[in-house]
């Protein structure tokens, strides 16, 4: 018997689609307890049933004026007070069933006192007349732009507990209510809220009152408003669900590319999930300076207008994945809602997973597997920081990628139809209600009779992932894989137990495989080889079903065979990754050969990245072929990875200055100008009309033009103007960073920089503070910044923020 050895790969992998029945085997159940005080359920003494909100705005003052009435029922035998969240809200009047009541305002909310204790099962109405200048939760965009160029919008972002800053109430997810909203505002604008639009009434003072009402209860954090200058396109899904596509009225050409495939996503999700969409109609609205990518407010998703793209911009950024993610939340998160932050994975893991399933449906298996790989990489990276479990309030961002991987593995373990049946039953049983992980786990037992305690223990209640060390030996009639688990084992982290496939490929093109439980410190999988065939290559977990890292001890020839002949893209990709440290002269022909056979961008990109520094005519020819490819991903990979543009091929690369992709044009411009500075003026002339999403290409062009001393004053003024509040935050960040690269700062830029550093939008404030820190450390600008700070009229809170930089 002989051992195969030498090269090793560390790969990160994921899951999907096999049968549970053939793997049924007694499982060892573990119990682990990780203290999670932040995940505790919040106590409350009433059940909120209905909300009627009547709201007005004075946007130039950042003022909200509202009257909110809640219908509620006590859920304790007697209650003498009621506490509602409402930090920094000024209450003008509070009534119970139409009569004034006493109340006490605190920093966090309001306590309302009842003269006679209320008893359970009796309905009451409490009304709060209030006003607020919210620092969170509701945002006024562009109303104080002195140049009047910014869009003027009002929008909300309630998750997790920010709606309380503009809407007093019980602002936790474990109590649901039917909401009704009346908004009175300037009739020149349009207003969106949750549910069906009941009416739109003109008022004599030039305002309108919009009336929306939800058909079913949902959590208060999902209440939303979106106000601005919009047009609306309406379509229908196959099931009849009305889909309203809101878009900025000044860019009608961006509507279709932005919402491309939206109706198809709804059709896919209703069929894949197996439960009809519950909210009647579904609307989506883009807003400026949004804090995140998007937010799944019930029946009305808000998303950042940086996803609003035209046909050309669609190549560089699209809304498809986020669209599918947020639409999935209409089931997972809105239809059913976690009781506390401990089970937030029941929202985000499902939304990430079903968006990934849509990618498979629309873009194919390779795209799905590549998404799986990205998720697995992110999950493993998160475990290098901490190994908190999914079911934990401190799980962090892993609830998206790892949770998606775990759902795929669950489906892989129990089977497709079994998974579908259990998920549909889980949703139907708990719709319009709150859930915990137990409810999801027990659905498999109730519907299928399967005990999944072991799976939830190792993948959801515990942290970490398995790390495998794999080798094999070839016998006369079998191939034996030896698998060791090398991850740390302690009170919280354990050995993993999963059904895993070993697959042996022979030089005659035939294959043998075996699926076994891999568990404990060491396991073996014996794959019969009754014919004594010669091994070509061996795969451990083909097609990357299991979330893991692993080292597989194999030699160059075997990795070569795998790269050329493995049936699945992700296994061929892993073979390429294993060759990263191999001498270029040994692997060049193989890489070029594989590139010419491959069709998926991930493998092509990996090959080009390994060849990037190769000064060889064959490699130059391959890059030249790639930049002329009709496929966007091939051209992008080539221009991104090329280390040196040969003078003989310059004309071919110059064609990218008129590429259909702004991003490719931008990268090509930067690389050509850097490598051939004597032709910089010519390159800039050819790319003079470049724009890009959030003006990224235009800002690169301006920076390069300033460096070349071309129309320097005008270009510098344009770049400085992009830093002002007249523009959305991504343009501002790009402009700040371009000026930093030029090491230029003047008073106008400094004012913009201070304004950005103090922004409520952390996605603007963070990068702006980094730029401000850079300048403050420069001798040329230190005094200028210090004087500006010393002479400013800052609030205590602003001083604390700026004082972290200006010391």
Note down, in words, how this protein is organized.
The strands form 7 sheets. Strands 3, 4, 6, 7, 10, 13, 15, 16 and 17 form a 9-stranded mixed beta sheet that branches. Strands 1, 2, 26, 27, 30 and 32 form a 6-stranded mixed beta sheet that branches. The chain has 807 residues and is of the alpha+beta class. The N terminus is likely disordered. The chain is globular. The protein has 25 helices and 32 strands. 36% of the residues lie in helices and 25% in strands. It starts with a strand and ends in a 5-residue tail after the last helix. Helix 4 packs across helix 6. Strand 26 and strand 27 form a beta hairpin. Among the domains are: 176 residues, tricorn interacting facor f3 domain (Immunoglobulin-like, Sandwich); 110 residues, Orthogonal Bundle (Neutral Protease, domain 2), CATH 1.10.390.10; 112 residues.
CATH class identity of the domain at 45-145 and 152-226: Mainly Beta
In terms of DSSP E residues, the strand content is: 15-25%
Over the alpha carbons, how many angstroms does the gyration radius reach? 30 Å
- Taking pLDDT < 50 over at least 5 consecutive residues as the criterion, the unreliable ranges are 1-32
Structural class: alpha+beta
Q: Globular, elongated, flat, extended or rod-shaped: what is the shape?
A: globular
The CATH topology of the domain at 45-145 and 152-226 comes to: Immunoglobulin-like
Main sheet makeup: 9 strands, mixed
Task: Quote the distance from N terminus to C terminus.
Answer: 70 Å
CATH superfamily of the domain at 45-145 and 152-226: tricorn interacting facor f3 domain
- Counting DSSP H or I runs of 4 or more residues, the number of helices is 25
